[in-house]
Amino acid sequence: MSRQRTVIIFKSESESTDVYAEELHRHYFNPIFVPTLSFGFKNLDKLNAKLQHPDDYSGLIFTSPRCVEAVCKALKNNELPGAWKMLHNYAVGEVTHNLAMSDLQQLFTHGKQTGTARSLAEFIIETFDGGKDLPFLLPCSNLAQDTLNLKLHEAGFRVDACEVYETKCSADLAEHMARALSSENIEYMAFFSPSGVNCTYEYFKANNILLDNYRLVAIGPSTRRALESKNLKVHCTAERPTVEHLIKVLINPEESRERLLKESQVALEE
Predict the structure, then answer these.
(1) Among 104, 170, 190, 268, which residue is least crowded by beta carbons within 10 Å?
(2) What are the TM regions of this chain, as residue ranges (predicted)?
(3) Domains, the chain, ranges and CATH?
(4) Beta strand pairing status for 159-169 and 37-41?
């Protein structure tokens, strides 16, 4: 049997953690999960007031599972007004899409095949068939990047961004990190978000831990850019935040590098 290679995964705990563990083990990887972030909700009364007026909006945009969770908390066990189902609703990724379906009375969202805010914005611009008079309601975090907002504004859309949760470094990060780094055969470190990169980087720097000894894996282009901004070498980049895409680049990192090279060449030509 092949030796299991350890991959430390810097990812907040969620319903998908067990799926990641099972699939990675099946492909002879030993995953160690380090929760890097904690989330605190805010402005939920403000969000609830907006949710009561679906006629004021073109639809909802969810960029993370926390955004769906914020809507659920804001509603305080009441149902989402049914008129939202008739609007243009969108979500980044299958996890967020599935959460909206299960927790918001089967609220269907488009765009689940997109893996980033940028690709979702492009999808909305390309496929939207309604008027642009009304804004989209966008629950977001204090660290939300302006990528989606800017691209939609450039295309003539309006966005009502409502900051509903704060992202902070986990209070237990140092404890989890020390335990994870004491493991054997650590070959990979997989980062799932720019904020996760920032939190872990502070720990590495404070404890004089050199990352040259590990192969760094970025989940998505924004996470790759966050790692590169710290002058860290990225071994490979997964296109989307799914276990299938992670395993794909772990097994065949060269394909990831070739794809990124092609994308950068296209960007230079535009």
Answers:
(1) 268
(2) none
(3) 3-35+170-265 (3.40.50.10090), 38-166 (3.40.50.10090)
(4) antiparallel
Task: Please tell me the distance from the alpha carbon of residue 118 to that of residue 148, in angstroms, as a whole number.
Answer: 5
Per-residue tens of pLDDT for the chain, all 270 residues: 456 899 999 987 765 788 899 999 999 999 999 999 988 999 999 999 999 999 999 999 999 999 999 999 999 989 999 999 999 999 998 889 999 999 999 999 999 998 888 899 999 999 999 899 999 999 998 877 678 999 999 999 999 999 999 988 999 999 999 999 999 889 999 999 899 999 999 999 999 999 999 999 999 888 999 999 999 999 999 988 888 999 999 998 877 666 666 655 544 444
Strand partners, 159: 136
Q: What is the pTM of this model?
A: 0.75
